[in-house]
């Protein structure tokens, strides 16, 4: 089983455990802020399911209907996760508003805080793990899920502050006020995930450092070619698509130009995991006298 899929399954289990703990904290206290925290955790469970499905789909090999693979399924999942974060923010805001209108005293507040803190610690550890592993395995779904959990951590910290203030001051409206502030932060986090995922769906180019690496590899390995130009790149999940035009002498044999392409492709694949390369060979009169100079 692919590691990304195993991590996604683990995320589902962790999210269920955290939801149970947070709801227990609300059940003990009756706090609106703690209820809001539990509501966001429901979104975490749904998000974990979306990640499992998207990682599974993205791992499928290319087929007749999808010759370039299914890698973008993860970006669609990330968009869904971002949308769910926004939905969670709106749900929290609604509960905060209701709390302002009908404030309620908090029962067993310190016990509830202790229970809720256990869930927060679990989320901090798992969110950091998801973001690190998502970047290592270039999984947009895992990174988005990790950022969602990190937003949940901020929510939990805000909730703790609110409940502590209520317990110390006796001002029950503070419970809802902190929940409303946390909702604004969660909304901003959801927007960030949506923006990043949408950019990837629009075939965003490889980062500047990776582009520079690609140019250098082509320059050093395209021996006997004249130049390379029209370099284009795009990311799709774990895959980096690279295509460019390679200019060679008009007298060069097809066999020799093919050997050069093989050498360049092998060097690129060794340096960039999951690279899919397309090279268009052109005769020297097609040279642009710009682009990548072959060493």
TrEMBL record:
One of its GO terms (biological process) is intracellular zinc ion homeostasis. Keywords: Cell membrane, Membrane, Transmembrane, Transmembrane helix, Transport. The chain crosses the membrane at residues 7-26, 32-55, 75-93, 113-131, 151-171, 177-194. GO terms for cellular component: plasma membrane. It is a multi-pass membrane protein. Pfam families: Cation_efflux (PF01545), ZT_dimer (PF16916). It comes from the Bacteria. Coiled coil: none annotated. InterPro entries: Cation_efflux, Cation_efflux_CTD, Cation_efflux_CTD_sf, Cation_efflux_TM, Cation_efflux_TMD_sf, CDF_Transporter. GO terms for molecular function: cadmium ion transmembrane transporter activity; ferrous iron transmembrane transporter activity; zinc efflux antiporter activity. Residues 207-284 form the Cation efflux protein cytoplasmic domain. It is found in: Cell membrane. Its main location: membrane. Residues 11-202 form the Cation efflux protein transmembrane domain. Belongs to the cation diffusion facilitator (CDF) transporter (TC 2.A.4) family. This is Protein p34.
């Amino acid at each position: 089983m692919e590691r990304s899929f195993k991590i996604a399954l683990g995320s589902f289990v962790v999210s269920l455990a955290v939801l149970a703990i947070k709801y227990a904290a609300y059940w003990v206290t009756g706090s609106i802020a703690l209820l809001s925290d539990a509501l966001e955790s429901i979104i975490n469970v749904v998000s974990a399911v979306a990640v499992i499905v998207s990682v599974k789909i993205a791992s499928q090999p290319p087929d007749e209907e999808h010759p370039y693979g299914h890698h973008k399924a993860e970006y669609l999942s990330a968009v869904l996760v971002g949308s769910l974060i926004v939905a969670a923010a709106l749900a929290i805001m609604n509960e905060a508003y209701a709390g302002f209108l009908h404030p309620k005293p908090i029962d067993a507040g310190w016990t509830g805080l202790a229970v809720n803190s256990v869930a927060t610690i679990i989320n901090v550890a798992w969110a950091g793990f998801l973001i690190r592993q998502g970047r290592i395995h270039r999984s947009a779904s895992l990174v988005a899920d990790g950022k969602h959990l990190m937003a949940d951590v901020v929510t939990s910290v805000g909730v703790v502050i609110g409940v502590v203030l209520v317990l110390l001051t006796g001002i029950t409206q503070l419970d809802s006020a902190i929940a409303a502030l946390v909702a604004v932060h969660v909304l901003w986090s959801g927007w960030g995930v949506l923006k990043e995922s949408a950019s990837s769906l629009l075939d965003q180019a490889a980062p500047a450092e990776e582009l520079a690496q690609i140019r250098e590899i082509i320059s050093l390995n395209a021996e006997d070619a004249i130049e390379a130009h029209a370099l284009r790149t795009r990311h799709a999940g774990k895959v980096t698509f690279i295509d460019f035009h390679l200019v060679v002498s008009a007298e060069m044999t097809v066999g020799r130009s093919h050997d050069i392409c093989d050498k360049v492709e092998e060097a690129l694949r060794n340096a960039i995991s999951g690279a899919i390369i397309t090279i268009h060979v052109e005769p020297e009169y097609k040279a642009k006298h710009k682009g990548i100079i072959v060493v």
